[in-house]
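Reading a protein record of the kind used here takes only a little practice. Think of the row as the fold of the chain written in a discrete alphabet. A record is reproduced here so that you can trace the correspondence yourselves:
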Amino acid sequence: MILEEIKTEFDDIVAIYNNDVFKDRNKDLLHEYSDRFTKLYKEIGPHCSETYGYRTMHDDKAASAIKARIARGLMETEKMTWNKAESLAAASQEYTDFLQERVFYYESWDSVDHLRNTIKQYIINIGLKISSMP
């Protein structure tokens, strides 16, 4: 299941759940919702891992490595000091593109992780409701 489908299904389940749970506190109904949320939680797991991997590939260490590679290339071709090459590297198009990608991947991971934690919280809350029922 693609991420957009997971988000849409989550929104649909939450809307129905919020409507049903206050009308009818049926244990079987809560188990059904728990199963549906658990299925979504399992579906989102690989997406969370994938976006975290991209986020890791764009961390501070990777940013420093790209800037250093660009600065070294400038030093060799333009014969300048390291400080000058490093400041020019920070302004280069390649480095700014990398930083834009970095923001995208950090925000993507944050969104996916937030959705995953929200789903997990629904599962926990349903479990607490079920355990408090006679």
The chain has a mean pLDDT of 92. The longest helix spans residues 93-131. The two ends are 36 Å apart (CA to CA). DSSP finds five helices and no strands in the chain.
